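Transcriptional regulator, MerR family
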Amino acid sequence: MEWSIQELAARAGITSRTLRHYDRVGLLAPSRIGANGYRYYDPTAVARLQRILLMRRLGMGLPAIAEVLADEVDTCDGLRAHIAELEEERDRVERQIRSVRHTLEALQAGAEPRMDVMLAGFNDHYKDEVISRWGERAFQVSNDWWHGKSLDQQRAWKQASEDLVAAWVAAARAGISPTSARAQTLAARHVRWLSEIPGTPTADGDRERSIAMVKGVGDMFVDDPRYAAMYEDAAGAAFVRDALQAYARTRM
């Protein structure tokens, strides 16, 4: 089976001139040239054109595409790589759709407070940090979980989070011990809060990694000024850290 240059161009949504240019620059030669001088393309050539068009849509220039095709040994491996790239692009577009949908819902509901945070996503701002600490899956799963929530669900979850922080601040102000019953009850509540986020070790039920995560979260509250400020000051952050680490040592 083969197709003429006019048939292939029409099916691909490009011009015959583009196909001839691809031949001139060494990207895509016709499978054969007939006695009449017409160019014909077989399925292998069409598969190569498909890959060229995919890379063009990803913003690659012709020289870069030529390098990719020249370096490849196995066409199927190349197609698998493109499938993975297209799936990533699909996921990105789906996240954008969800974000815009949330914006529309917010405008219709007259919502204003901290929309930048709600619409940015659960942990987009800390993507690299989340991945470095807990892996790519932890970020992706939790991020998809957050973006999959409705605006009302996002609001409710953020309110619960703010209530938890407020409870920690009140406990720290009270001057109680991090190992007291009140502090340890808050620590248990904090761990339950973490377990509600898909992709985390606490959600997965991985005890050893959960303990490491809870201890690491406690350290992060003290070491990172962004988090320490949530608990008013360094002393408040240290109180939360000590309570969480005591809970991790004795109750997890």
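thats it. The radius of gyration is 27 Å. Confidence is low (pLDDT under 50) at residues 112-123. bye
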